[in-house]
Specification:
Blueprint: H1 2-18, H2 22-27, E1 29-31, E2 38-40, E3 45-50, E4 57-62, H3 63-68, E5 74-75, H4 78-97, H5 99-104, H6 106-125, H7 134-148, H8 158-165, H9 176-192, E6 196-197, H10 209-234, H11 240-246, H12 251-254, H13 269-278, H14 285-320, H15 323-333, H16 344-380, H17 384-391, H18 398-423, H19 425-446, H20 449-476, H21 479-495
Antiparallel strand pairs: 1-2, 3-4, 5-6
Helix pairs in contact: 1-10, 1-13, 4-6, 4-9, 6-8, 7-8, 7-9, 10-11, 14-20, 14-21, 15-19, 16-18
Length: about 500
């Protein structure tokens, strides 16, 4: 389906650019600005019907324009095509009768007179205007004036230039081939680019692109219905309409823009790109990241400010309404619900204490002894009496031995005391009673009105300060830099 969407988007782009680029599709020429030179790109030619000729005849024309001109209602313009037909008739007459005799024949003279008349009508009626190609006529007139006046364009009018060109003195046996070749290369291609476009019943130019677009629209509509139906069955929380809204970006694919405003069909770029990305034909992860960063950076600060301020305001409101008092009262008065006959706080505290005493303390005991030893030595070294004992013969090492014994006794005694406390049920009972009494006393004292009012005022003021300072810091923070740091952390996490 992604390939079909890409093909349809390509057809839409071709249709929208066909009329402006028709000159290229007709002749395969890319003009170089400010020069008369062109870059020629060969386009295959096929036999195409010329209904303007009398009688109609087959001509060789670009296969693109021959096949697509009918879609846009484009036909040969009768005036400009009659002009080119007259030139072709003149060439055939000269070739049939010979160069010298042909140029003097009555048939050739009549054709030259016809060309002079057609040239005057071409200038006055401007058949290029109806399709916005008046600039092409100006280019034709300027080139013709340059040709017959040796570059002195201001010396001759465009009508006189055509009259001089289609005249026997200018088209002599010596100059015929050169001049007719110049016309075929410089003027005839410009005249051939003109066309006539039919008008539909709605008053607009004929555009039958809908006939080419309709099969794609039908295909995409059926695929959309099938896909959304599958989504609605896969996710039970979604109905069919919800699934359609979920896939809203697929709707431009089957919307018949060609019937009312064809340029809107370019919206199909979005679902086409998404489908190509999902089919792993193109990679849009980088673009998606940049789009999300731009979107998030635009609204992140506002959303964060609103959320934080709203939360702080709700907490302030609750405190001012006395809900803190009600919470403390409910906490102290309501019966605690025990679901497993286990005091979890007591069990957790006991487990952590045992872990600290039996597992952690023995491993950190050497480091603890080193720290105590260093501390004791530092204090004793500041004493003159201790320094004096160290220099006495026979007892110089005694202070160090006393220090080592002291450190060992302290750590070992502490460890043994902790173990004994953990193994003594009475100690555990007294500790639990202390904690329970502390929590109940704290709750009851906190409910006293003078203490509670002061705490509420302080909490409200603290939240107000937090709110003001947070908003100030957030406004000074560059959200784009935060997003960049976040993306770098995500990249590091993916690599690890």
């Amino acid at each position: 389906m992604a390939i079909a969407a890409a093909a349809n988007l390509g057809l839409v782009l071709f249709d929208l650019t066909y009329v402006p680029w028709r000159n290229f599709w007709l002749q395969g020429n890319i003009p170089i600005p400010l020069t008369h030179q062109v870059i020629a790109i060969p386009i295959p030619q096929i036999s195409c019907q010329d209904s303007s000729a009398k009688p109609p005849r087959q001509t060789q024309e670009s296969f693109v324009t021959c096949l697509y001109d009918p879609v846009k209602g484009i036909e040969y313009h009768p005036d400009t095509q009659s002009y080119l037909n007259a030139v072709e008739r003149l060439r055939q007459q000269v070739n049939q009768k010979g160069l010298e005799a042909g140029l003097q024949s009555a048939e050739v003279q009549a054709t030259l007179a016809d060309l002079r008349k057609l040239s005057a009508e071409l200038i006055t009626s401007n058949p290029f205007e109806s399709v916005g190609k008046s600039g092409t006529l100006e280019k034709i007139k300027n080139r013709m004036r340059d040709r017959v006046s040796d570059g002195r364009r201001s010396d001759v009018s465009s009508a006189d230039a055509f009259t001089l060109f289609w005249n026997t003195p200018h088209l002599s046996p010596q100059t015929w081939q050169q001049e007719i070749t110049w016309f075929d290369q410089s003027i005839a291609p410009l005249i051939a680019t003109n066309y006539y476009r039919t008008i539909s019943e709605n008053g607009e130019f004929t555009n039958n692109f809908w006939a080419l677009d309709a099969p794609f629209i039908l295909l995409f509509a059926l695929e959309f219905l099938a896909r959304t139906f599958y989504i609605s069955r896969r996710f039970t929380s979604l109905n069919w309409l919800d699934a359609m809204i979920w896939r809203w970006y697929d709707m431009p694919l089957f919307t018949p823009f060609s019937l009312f405003f064809p340029p809107l069909a370019l919206l199909r770029t979005i679902p086409t790109a998404i489908q190509l990305h999902q089919a792993n034909i193109i990679d849009l992860h980088q673009i998606n990241a940049q789009v999300r960063q731009g979107f998030v950076s635009a609204i992140a600060e506002e959303i964060t400010e609103v959320v934080v301020v709203q939360v702080v305001n709700q907490v302030q409101h609750s405190i001012r309404q006395g809900e803190l008092t009600g919470f403390l009262q409910r906490t102290s008065s309501r019966r605690y619900v025990d679901i497993n006959n286990v005091n979890e706080i007591e069990a957790i505290a006991k487990h952590l204490t045992q872990l600290l005493v039996y597992q952690v303390f023995p491993k950190i005991q050497p480091d603890l002894e080193t720290l105590l030893r260093h501390s004791i030595h530092s204090v004793l070294n500041q004493s003159p009496a201790y320094r004096g004992l160290q220099v006495l013969p026979g007892i110089g090492s005694l202070p160090s031995q006393i220090t080592e014994r002291l450190v060992s006794d302290i750590t070992q005694t502490s460890y043994n005391s902790l173990k004994a406390a953990l193994e003594d049920p009475k100690t555990i009972e007294l500790a639990i009673r202390l904690i329970q009494n502390l929590s109940s006393t704290l709750a009851s004292e906190a409910q006293r009105q003078n203490n509670l009012d002061e705490v509420q005022i302080l909490l409200s003021d603290l939240l107000e300060e937090i709110k003001i300072n947070y908003i100030q810091r957030l406004s000074e923070e560059d959200v784009t830099l935060l997003l960049d740091q976040t993306r770098q952390l995500q990249q590091i996490a993916r690599k690890s």
